[in-house]
Amino acid sequence: MFSKACEYGIRAAVYIALQSLDGRRVSVTEIAGEIDSPIAFTAKILQQLTRNNIVNSVKGPTGGFEIERKDMDRVNLSMIVKAIDGDNIYVGCGLGLKECNADKPCPLHDKFVDIRSNLRTMLKSTSLYELATGLEVGLTYLKR
């Protein structure tokens, strides 16, 4: 459903939020190790998340990535998906056709309308704080 970069972006943002709740900044190397992603690929993803004001990057010997507690409520999954994958998940054809629309639908077009609507609702209503606290109390997990 999401690109590999987007999956890693979500996992990275959740990991950063979880560590930030403990007052820790985390390095790109630590993040890459925790989300099982190549370091260079993780660095590019973190650049996109930083550019889109999802996470903060602090330079220097005590630097790293963090997200302020107040921003964890503001940031939702939809923002992360848009920062990495754009909005194709909401508008692209389910079969990958270029001409698919209401006037010229693909065989899955009408079925995807409700699915997309539900997905948009779920992504917009799920905050980074909600995901991080689920991990913190052991209700969810992040590793494979």
Automatic annotation (TrEMBL):
It holds the Pfam family Rrf2. InterPro entries: Tscrpt_reg_Rrf2, WH-like_DNA-bd_sf, WH_DNA-bd_sf. GO terms for cellular component: cytosol. PROSITE patterns: HTH_RRF2_2 (PS51197). One of its GO terms (molecular function) is DNA-binding transcription factor activity. This is Rrf2 family transcriptional regulator. It comes from Flagellimonas chongwuensis.
